[in-house]
């Protein structure tokens, strides 16, 4: 049986750093208040004129270099902040990376997007449609946040992370053999940007500037995220024939440090098995898991041979998990990790 094997990794963060002190001066909150609620100390934010595709191209190029290849057969871009409503952003990213003619499309599962895109890339390899796939998670959430919202604005940063998948065997380190994915659209209003889509446009209502910003029901999201990520993690481990105690590192979607700790507690895993960079980058949505992997690899927290659990939760509502034995991956010299 053909398997999709992770063979390269890269990340990119915009150079501009926005500290809690800077955000706090504008919103009337303190660094201590933000850190206590979220674990976030700073985030990277795009300069005007920089788009999601710009970040995706930088991260994608680094992942290709890490894998030692110049191109792949397909590009799957996980993003909730595309460059345009039409067309998708992935074809432009592929073209800028020199891969005109490649399969290229977007996946929008918001903060679960990277895991959904990994599963999609894996299906392309298993189905024989591609020998290799570049999977990118990239978001510029600073473009959909109300600058005056003291609750939501401090949470998010911009960034991109990417991996390369290649055809291999299920026994190889890095093989992605098991996934758990799910959704519950009954709660789409928990995290939403109300305006700009067909529902608002078809109703003949003018675009409301406030409706163009993301809103979030924090308490409901917190409870659902902890429950779904823990449940999904157990499901995928069972499918992979692994016990929870075999997990060496948990790389969860970097939404909130309290969520990550609660998930570890539900799984009865010690907190020192968590890989987290949320204090330095904030919530980067679809980019958060590959950026955390790059950070963990650079700092020695993710090592060859480790059993690594990836789990995420996002708007939709969506959730997903996968597990793999970490392969030998080399980051580029000077890799821009958080």
UniProtKB/TrEMBL annotation:
Segments passing through the bilayer: none
Chief site of localization: cytoplasm
Compartments reported by the entry: Cytoplasm
Keywords linked to the UniProt accession: Acyltransferase, Cytoplasm, Fatty acid biosynthesis, Fatty acid metabolism, Lipid biosynthesis, Lipid metabolism, Multifunctional enzyme, Transferase
Pfam family, one: ACP_syn_III
SUPFAM superfamilies: Thiolase-like
UniProt GO MF annotations: 3-oxoacyl-[acyl-carrier-protein] synthase activity; beta-ketoacyl-acyl-carrier-protein synthase III activity
Compositional bias ranges of the Low complexity kind: 195-205
UniProt domain Beta-ketoacyl-[acyl-carrier-protein] synthase III N-terminal: residue ranges: 105-185
Region (ACP-binding): 254-258
Top-level taxon of the source organism: Bacteria
Any one of the GO BP annotations: secondary metabolite biosynthetic process
General function of this protein: Catalyzes the condensation reaction of fatty acid synthesis by the addition to an acyl acceptor of two carbons from malonyl-ACP. Catalyzes the first condensation reaction which initiates fatty acid synthesis and may therefore play a role in governing the total rate of fatty acid production. Possesses both acetoacetyl-ACP synthase and acetyl transacylase activities. Its substrate specificity determines the biosynthesis of branched-chain and/or straight-chain of fatty acids.
Record's protein name: Beta-ketoacyl-[acyl-carrier-protein] synthase III
Source organism: Streptomyces lonarensis
Lineage: Bacteria, Bacillati, Actinomycetota, Actinomycetes, Kitasatosporales
Gene this protein is translated from: fabH
